[in-house]
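Deliverable D5.2: sample structural annotation.
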Amino acid sequence: MSTPKDPFKTRKLKTIPMPEREPSPPSAGRVSTYGPPSSDSTWQTGETAAERTTDPALTVPASGPKDRATLTVLSGMNAGQVFAMDGTDHVIGRGTEADVWVEDGGVSRRHARITCRADGRYVIEDLGSTNGTFLGATRVKRAELSPGDRIQLGPNIVVRFAITDDAEEELQRRLYESSIRDPLTRCYNRKYLSERLTAEVAYSRRHRVKLSVLMMDVDDFKLTNDTYGHLAGDMVLRLVSAQIMRLIRVEDLLARYGGEEFVLLARSTGKTEATRLAERIREAVAEVSFEIDDKTLGVTLSIGVAALPDVPDGGPNELLALADARLYRAKREGKNRVCAEGE
């Protein structure tokens, strides 16, 4: 099995020398100035043209061959996500066994397959999907792909097939990551959480799978910000998110909900297991400490837990609201605790 390619590796750059030339002589007695609001004509900003120097070397990234086949999701919840076609066969579907996982109810578990032939050409084949595979406006059973082709999977999902180089693929991945991640903590952002929660609740209802939500809030965060500054507050958020991510599974989703609040979406987890997880998280965060102004400060969390059976007729908003209500009950009862009961 080949080692997965790191999309964030540093790329080599090559330097192209530029011919040196004599600078043009400045016009006699003329100096560009930016006039101040007052009448003081001696105020100048920047350097004159004669004082500035130009770097004689231009650094550009080395271009690579266009040999990377990719699928970019253009619609649906995962719009912007990029999948690299690294092997010979890739199954597209919403089943967990799919190589290209698309989360949409209109996509079959094994919807279609893209195959790289021996001559390097790519072919898409429908795998008996319920809602069909379309190339452009034509429903197909099997068809050869060309760069730029748009493939529709069922009624909602459109993906674009492309042949790119490593730099383009890396840029697409970075753009997608920046659209779903919180830049400070590297957790998922609130928009992505909202989309995933809606899909997870629907999936859990349909397949009778357990689902729980943990709403977490850093205790006395405003006091830390007001006393030690926002840089200290940022440090607290990064430490807390890193500690939580150490304790969760790959299939769990941790998002920064806003300010000092985090939400953990725990798949296939009932309320008893979710409460135990919340206690482990609370204890782990309570062990975190950091130094500022020669003082050692600690951090604590209050956590509200809600499971899908707690809202038998409710949807994602009701599940999140219940976890939030239990979080504030934990706050009222003294902070640094977990609450999994109550309205």
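Annotation notes: The first strand starts at residue 13 and ends at 17. The helical segments are 166-180, 190-207, 221-228, 230-245, 271-286, 316-332.
The annotation will be released with the project's public dataset once the embargo ends.
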